[in-house]
Amino acid sequence: MRIKLKIGTGGEDRIKTYSEFWDYYVLEHSKPLTRYFHFVGTTLGIVMLVWFLRSGSYLYIPLCFAVGYAFAWFSHFFIEKNRPATFKYPLWSFISDYKMMFYMLIGKMDAEVVRVISDA
Questions:
Q1: Is 82 contained in some domain?
Q2: For helices 90-105 and 109-119, what crossing angle results, to 10°?
Q3: 78 and 34 in contact (C-beta within 8 Å)?
Q4: Is 64 exposed, middle or buried (0-12, 13-18, 19+ CB in 10 A)?
Q5: Which residue range forms the structural domain that includes residue 50?
Q6: Is residue 115 part of a domain?
Q7: I need a labelling partner for 17 at 20 to 30 A (CA). Which of 27, 60, 81, 87 fits?
Q8: How many structural domains are present in the chain?
Q9: What's the pLDDT tens digit per position in 55-102?
Q10: How does pLDDT run across 6-59, given as a tens digit for each residue?
């Protein structure tokens, strides 16, 4: 059963399951430009990770996360105008970023946003 969350109501404090978190995450990424910034940052992070692993430059691996999160955080602060869920739910946020990226690749993310907003 999914709980109904509204942005900025403190509903995120009641999140107990990943299913509930996913709906919250989708609401926090309702603007397409926010999602695209996430997509670009995550893609760059993955490319950098592969590059550093293949070249043996292991000391640079933390830069992969810095680049990925820089794009995401910029989009939250300046486009979506909210606070990244990373601060409160780091693991679920990390997982959800890849889920959102996959949904974007298969063309399902816009419909997911509509579904969650209509349930809110």
A1: yes
A2: 120
A3: no
A4: buried
A5: 27-107
A6: no
A7: 81
A8: 1
A9: 999 999 999 999 999 999 999 999 999 999 888 999 999 999 999 999
A10: 545 555 567 999 999 999 999 999 999 999 999 999 999 999 999 999 999 999
